Amino acid sequence: MAQAYRPDTGNHGPESEPSEPPTTGTAPLPGASGTSGTRPRRRLTDGWRGDRRIWRRGVVLAVAALLLTVVMVFHAQIPNKIGNLGSLTETFLPWFGLGIPLLLILAVLRRSALALVVLILPAAVWINLFAGLCTDKATPGGDLTVATHNVNAENHDPAGTVATLVASGADVVALEEIAGDNLAGYEKAMAAAYRHHTVQGTVGLWSKYPLTDVRKVDIRLGWARALRATVAAPKGEVAVYVAHMPSVRVKLNAGFTAGQRDASADALGEAIAREPLSRVVLLGDLNGTMNDRALNGITAQMRSTQGAAGDGFGFSWPAAFPMARIDQIMVKGVEPVSSWTLPRTASDHLPIAARVAFQP
Q: What's the structural domain count of the chain?
């Protein structure tokens, strides 16, 4: 008797294995384990688990992080006797923070838990020193707007430079490094906005309000690069100082040469300390930052408007890629309410401005 036909199922006996379920060809869902998006992360982390050497590797990186911490914490103890190394370090101190993300990347690539932990130290120090400068501390109000600009002796566009300063709304403007052949151009361009002005040597002061008791300030150079005047502002008199400190140089054989600048800063600090008026504003190119110990004679008795009421570091030099704030607006007896940098002119410095409020 013929048997009915049955299709072959692939099971030929009790010992046959069950067939595999068919694949559908569907790709894994995004974010599922093993997807390409997680591979870079897994390559960085897979080698950490169970690896006891993560606390032994990266000793050099950890030492570098410690050295970075020591420099930022004890910068004031770095001696100036050899090439003014201390002042040079303090001039560019905020930029030492760039070493932190660099060491962080190297520590991750090296898979060093030791270096990562030690990196907490310089990060905490940098945040303590400079994080406050990264926020906008400006407030509304104010009674007087001031501006200062090293216009550069080789500036061939006095009119354009003045237009930038006038657009800031400044009531009082100080200019430094005025070349003799450019003076007439600045006086002509400023005349429409500022009725009162004085020029002493290579520095000048222009004001919307009357100037009295104008005189040179001796900063031990032998020629005029600083002045003092009383501005009769609507809310009261204020003594305004304008100064251009001697330049500093970085030389391979001599380091950071700043002896003349340091002596001039001391002389200016002494003059300001003798000032009889309680309201004082200092405008100028000090060729030094607020961190530079050489300016202690000035900074110990005055406040930086940028530090008190600015937005960011306010770097002013060099104009093409600002790396340091060597142009300063400093005050005592008045309250800074805002501080900012102005657009670039034909100078190698950026102009800066600030608004202050008179205290009762």
A: 2
